[in-house]
Design goal:
Layout: E1 2-7, E2 10-16, E3 30-31, E4 39-44, E5 59-60, E6 64-69, E7 72-78, E8 84-91, E9 96-101, H1 113-117, H2 122-128, E10 131-141, E11 144-149, H3 156-167, E12 170-173, E13 176-182, E14 185-190, E15 204-215, E16 220-224, H4 226-235, H5 244-260, E17 263-268, H6 272-284
Parallel strand pairs: 2-4, 4-9, 11-15, 15-17
Antiparallel strand pairs: 1-2, 1-3, 5-6, 6-7, 7-8, 8-9, 10-11, 10-12, 10-13, 13-14, 14-15, 16-17
Helix pairs in contact: 4-5
Length: about 290
């Protein structure tokens, strides 16, 4: 089975030994067959003969362990007391990722494409191809992508919905946003695999600005210098925090972003007035065109 999937401007050519079911939330990201893919992902169920790490782990997150051995890297998906349920092996250029699935711990072998994609080193893949992964809501308004970035509970989704209600903006995603510079321009993408309230839109928009949010008793907005914006944005980056290489790579992408894209700080209340204040500032700064 062969599937082509575009995520964050990165084109995945997925080749599976078995037929897979395509999740409904992935349908907007499926592409036509092409030779111009960025990487091949081969999925195998031959667990016993697949390459696996033998050395010491270099890092881990909530569900995966990471290894580097010679010219190969490994991402092992843990399965609790049952042991590893998958292991992805790949070289540093990410041209080919082999994902071996251990079906023994499962009552039924996984057959949904989305479940298998979660077994891949997605953050590493995005970073390698120059895609920023941010904890941010995203709307599209008058042909421009506007991001709301803030810690959970600050009001990203609320502000996105207010723009939808009062300005007719389209909500692209509520929790995770991908950004990639292509042809000298930063573009925005939704992400279908995770997030507290994913919208799963496949729309691609030119990025107009990033808005950092904080709750306040009144609505005030100011444009931030790159020096003041980089720290708060770094805290909203989705990355392998254990990796110094990843932290440096994300920082470099943020510096590139801040050279091209304005960042604003919005102290806001959860009402229409917050939309009016921000919209007025974005029109004044010519981020969006009135009407």
């Amino acid at each position: 089975m062969e599937v082509y999937l575009q995520l964050g401007g990165v084109l995945f050519a997925i080749q599976s030994e078995r037929e897979l079911d395509i999740d409904v939330e992935l349908s907007a990201f499926i592409q036509e067959k092409t030779e111009n893919y960025d990487l091949i992902v081969s999925i195998t169920w031959d667990w016993d003969n697949a390459p696996k790490p033998e050395g010491e782990m270099i890092g881990q997150d909530l569900i995966q362990n990471y290894y580097i051995e010679g010219d190969r890297r490994f991402c092992e998906t843990r399965g609790g007391w049952k042991g590893a349920i998958a292991c992805a092996s790949y070289t540093a250029d990410f041209s080919h990722v082999l994902c071996a699935v251990n079906e023994k711990p499962f009552l039924q072998p996984p057959k949904m494409l989305g479940s298998l994609l979660r077994m891949l080193p997605m953050r590493e893949i995005f970073l390698h191809f120059g895609t920023l992964f941010l904890h941010a809501s995203q709307i599209a308004y008058n042909g421009r992508g506007i991001l709301f970035a803030a810690p959970s509970g600050t009001g990203k989704t609320t502000q996105a919905r207010l723009w939808q209600e009062f300005c007719g903006a389209e909500i692209i995603c509520n929790d995770r946003t991908l950004l990639r510079k292509h042809g000298g321009v930063w573009h925005t993408y939704g992400y279908p695999l995770d997030g507290s309230e994913p919208v799963r839109s496949g729309a691609v928009n030119r990025l107009g600005c990033v808005v950092l949010l904080e709750q306040g008793k009144e609505n005030r907005v100011q444009r931030l210098s790159p020096g003041k914006a980089v720290g708060p944005l770094m805290r909203q980056a989705v990355m392998d925090c254990w990796s110094a290489e990843a932290r440096e790579g994300v920082m470099n992408l943020l510096f590139s972003l801040l050279e091209d894209v304005p960042v604003f700080l919005l102290s806001c209340t959860p009402d229409q007035h917050a939309v009016e204040v921000l919209k007025g500032k974005l029109e004044e700064e010519e981020v969006i065109v009135n009407g």
